[in-house]
Structures are given as structure tokens and as C-alpha cells.
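User: Is it possible to get a 3D structure for a protein together with its bound compound? The compound here is guanosine-5'-diphosphate. I've pasted both below.
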Amino acid sequence: MASALTEKLSRLVKELRGQARITEDNVAEMLREVRLALLEADVALPVVRDFIARVKGKALGAEVVGSLTPGQVLVGIIHKELAATMGAGTAGELNLAAQPPAVVLMAGLQGAGKTTSTAKLARHLIEKRKKKVLTVSGDVYRPAAIEQLKTVTAQAGAEWFPSTAQQKPLDIARAALDYARKHHFDVLLVDTAGRLAIDAVLMDEIKELHAVLNPVETLFVVDAMQGQDAINTARAFKEALPLTGIVLTKLDGDARGGAALSVRAVTGVPIKFAGVSEKLDGLEAFDAERHAGRILG
Ligand code: GDP
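Assistant: Yes, that's possible. Here is the predicted structure of the complex:
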């Protein structure tokens, strides 16, 4: 793991003490360090390039006042820019402004944490927002996934709508929606099939599900440990679906979390929640300030 960027920069700027401004000359080497630190945190290269260009624009000419060194000023600028980039939009909130049931569609690769996050959101909506919540799984390829949703839905205290591997995902979606309407559910959470890699059939299927369900939230669930690859996954889901938010899972792992910056940059939608444990209470509003600190080390 990279040694802390803040330390590296302070070493670099020892000789720059006493300079009153950040200039093209003294910033170049520091920006190289920043670039490396972001790459080591697994931020995707094109995102790093854009980010560095923005930081450079803000840093040049910035005044170095008081007892601060140019390095400290630069770290401050980077931290602020990282937090602003990752934190744009609302964290911790789901938009439920729809004729009930408000439908939330969960999208992402297999293993990203969709089923777990579905149950975590169910629990959150029941406890924090006093909603009546129904869950359903459209994962007809993995009967075990349907069973898993049944189990965690019960743990979350929500109701589970049965589905089987013999059904078509669209039929399941229609039936669940119908049931949710008839029984006055506030929210219908729809867990979907994920593959190990991007797959055209899967993408067509989830697009059709989106058309039938007309969800008010379409959440892209992504594993923070996915690192560099997260950008490709994010791009594929963004092309297929009008995403409204991101759930970044497994932030309790030891990834530096650069995936957050990549997926935010590529999708343009807010990171709404962070998964911080396997348990159903392990869901937090994404904290961009804290996460910027983690990426910078
Ligand atoms: P799905 O295939 O996308 O539905 O993924 P699952 O919900 O089945 O999750 C895959 C694995 O990741 C399971 O073992 C979960 O317990 C685990 N998991 C999901 N979210 C988190 C998280 O935020 N932190 C940790 N540590 N594990 C998680």
C-alpha cells in the first residue's frame, strides 16, 4: 500500500518552504505524486487525468498563506476537490416521490452485493422511514439467489414476493408490481440477476425490466474492491440504464476506495449509500469527506 500521500508531499516540499505561491514549477512534481497515489488507490486512469487537470487549474496561483507549505495547500485543494467530486448529489436518501409503490431497481454484477444491499435498504426504509416494503428477485438463473433474498428479507422485517427459476423475469416483475399495488406497499425493491462479467443478454433483460417497472430509483451496486475494473462495469450499466444512484459496497474491506471516484465520474450520479459490513445494519449514507481522506491516505 502507498505511504500516505500527505507525508510524501510534505517531503517533496521541504525545499519549497518560503515560496509564496504554487507555480507551474513547484506543482509538477507534487502532481506526479498525487497521480500515483490515485492510481494506487485504484482510480481509473482517464478519471485520474481529468482530476489532475482540474486540480492543477485550481492550484496554480493559489496563495500559500500563514504557516502552510505549498504541499499542505495542495493537499487541501485535492481533498476539497475529491470530496466535492464524490459528494455531489444527495447521500443517504432514496427518492420515493412516486405514486406508491415506489419501485427501486437494483443493478450490478454478480457478487457486487445486490441482494445484501436490497435487504439493507428494506431495513433502512422500514426503520427510518416507516415504509411498508416488498422485495422480489428476478434472478431466475440462480434459485439460490432467490432463496437468499427470501432469508434476508425476513431478517429485515419486510415482505418477500415469491418467484421461481421457471418464470420469466418480466412476468415476475409484473406480478410483484401488481401485488404491491393491491396490498398498498410503499416501496417495491427489485433484486436482479447479475453475471460475473458484462453480458449483452443480461443488459437487454434489465433494460426491459426497467421499461416495465418504471422505477423511481435505479441503483448501480458496485463492489469497492473491484478497483480499476469498476469503471468498465459502471460505463456498461450507465449505457444500459438511466441510473439514479450508486451503492458502494464492501467499504469495510481494505481497498483504498478509488472506485468511488471512478464510478461517480463515469455515471454522473450520486453515491447514495455505502455498505460497511455483511450484516443488515451495515449500510451508511456515503460520506464523501471521510472517503476523500481514505483515498489520500
Ligand atoms: P449479489 O450477487 O450482487 O446479490 O451479491 P450478494 O448480496 O450475494 O453479496 C455477495 C457477498 O458479498 C456476500 O457474501 C455478502 O455477504 C457480501 N457483502 C455484500 N455487501 C457487503 C459489504 O458491504 N461488506 C462486506 N464485508 N460484505 C458484503
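The CA atoms of residues 50 and 249 lie 25 Å apart. The mean pLDDT is 89.
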